[in-house]
What we know:
Layout: H1 5-35, E1 61-62, E2 68-74, E3 79-85, E4 89-98, E5 109-116, E6 122-123, E7 125-127, E8 131-134, E9 140-147, E10 164-174, E11 183-194, H2 213-227, H3 253-276
Parallel strand pairs: 1-3
Antiparallel strand pairs: 2-11, 3-10, 4-9, 4-11, 5-6, 5-8, 5-10, 7-9
Helix pairs in contact: 1-3
Amino acid sequence: xxxxxxxxxxxxxxxxxxxxxxxxxxxxxxxxxxxxxxxxxxxxxxxxxxxxxxxxxxxxxxxxxxxxxxxxxxxxxxxxxxxxxxxxxxxxxxxxxxxxxxxxxxxxxxxxxxxxxxxxxxxxxxxxxxxxxxxxxxxxxxxxxxxxxxxxxxxxxxxxxxxxxxxxxxxxxxxxxxxxxxxxxxxxxxxxxxxxxxxxxxxxxxxxxxxxxxxxxxxxxxxxxxxxxxxxxxxxxxxxxxxxxxxxxxxxxxxxxxxxxxxxxxxxxxxxxxxxxxxxxxxxxxxx
Length: 288
């Protein structure tokens, strides 16, 4: 079969179009997965949040993602909430402290929020206002902490965020002793944002970092075996997503892997068409 210059040019145009189409499809698919609102945790704005806070890690009040918890307390109390965060998510915690009236206080105060994982390791904030000072005439003080993306697995010596429960602690760290005990109000909200496959790693935890999850799992299995009711719905514990933890096998990296393989195959065909040449010159007789 003789390949004419016109036919070669047509093949090149077709392959170039296929490469551009593949790049467009791959880019749009990755952007759609990253920006898809359904990929993030479903908001719980229609549900009333808790109206109290715990005073220790063990009594922390459970928060759902995008749910606001409020509490009335005294200046100097330690207030605790707990919320779940899964692999591939980046948690953000915001807090608003409503200070007492100006007549009841005469000095500045410093407030702080800290976030701990299921092992009670303090997690550093990527950015935000984790500690803020409130003037004597301020009515409110706003705090925020954006954590690093949660990883599915990490080295034992590392302090990376891992799937599980995350505890929020709100307290005042600098206040005169004569102003301790004044009534304050607090509002805390935890949100999670899907980060996509850019932060995926190989490996996964056998159990999420939820206190007592291994004991609870063993107890549930023994109770189900004794009662013969293995199909009964499981009630999620505090600090656990309602729809369970992610399985960890599907991420948008599969789209990039498959798309990259397709583009590589098209590039190989295109490169072969370029190096093969234009075929037999017209001036060369047949059989030579």
